[in-house]
TrEMBL record:
It comes from the Bacteria. Thiol-specific peroxidase that catalyzes the reduction of hydrogen peroxide and organic hydroperoxides to water and alcohols, respectively. Plays a role in cell protection against oxidative stress by detoxifying peroxides and as sensor of hydrogen peroxide-mediated signaling events. Residues 1-19 form the signal peptide. The gene is bcp_1. InterPro entries: AhpC/TSA, Peroxiredoxin_AhpC-typ, Peroxiredoxin_BCP/PrxQ, Thioredoxin-like_sf, Thioredoxin_domain. PROSITE patterns: THIOREDOXIN_2. The keyword Oxidoreductase applies. Residues 22-171 form the Thioredoxin domain. This is thioredoxin-dependent peroxiredoxin. Belongs to the peroxiredoxin family. BCP/PrxQ subfamily.
Length: 173
């Protein structure tokens, strides 16, 4: 039992380091997950537009609420740049639905209950019995290529930072 616990902890420390090897210029890892309404959403559906894919730890917690509401409040500017915001956590769809309704979030929240997509993006913190998506964001271009990676996110300022970077990325031509 102790051996298994030690192995789990070691893998929990090593796996995120390996997954953090995603770099700007690489194709974004594919995904297909259900949103808060039970609609299947995939990376392929967002081809042709910019995608802001943000991972967050838990619905209806202070930092996650701040981040989601800031994206909500900047939604018109973000969509004006031809981009779509999509949130991902390991919460279930029902929890996403309640969170989206409570705060009137106008974008999809994807349920990655198994944590497989968060893991592909290096955004899964897995300590065995405690798992959550790390607060990280990826800007993906219309061809499905990673153009910006945020591994250190301040929930209060992040939506504005993403908006500023989207402006720069979309005006490069």
């Amino acid at each position: 039992m102790l051996r298994m616990l030690c192995l789990s902890l070691l893998l929990g420390l090593v796996a995120p380091v390996m997954a953090d090897t995603l770099t700007v210029g690489q194709p974004a890892p594919v995904f297909a997950l259900k949103d808060q309404s039970g609609v299947m959403r995939s990376l392929e559906q967002f081809r042709g537009k910019w995608l802001v894919l943000y991972f967050y730890p838990k619905n209806d917690t202070p930092g996650c609420t701040t981040e989601a509401c800031n994206f909500r409040d900047g939604q018109a500017f973000i969509t004006g740049l031809g981009a779509q915001v999509v949130g991902v956590s390991i919460d279930e769809s029902a929890s996403h639905k309640a969170f989206a309704e409570k705060y009137k979030l106008p974008f999809p929240l994807l349920a990655d209950a198994e944590g497989t997509v968060a893991d592909r993006y290096g955004a899964l913190s897995n300590w065995g019995v405690v798992r959550f998506a790390k607060r990280q964001t990826f800007i993906i271009d219309p061809r499905g290529v990673l153009r910006k990676i945020y591994r250190d996110v301040d929930a209060d300022k992040h939506a504005q930072q993403v908006l500023d970077d989207l402006k720069a990325l979309t005006t490069r031509g």
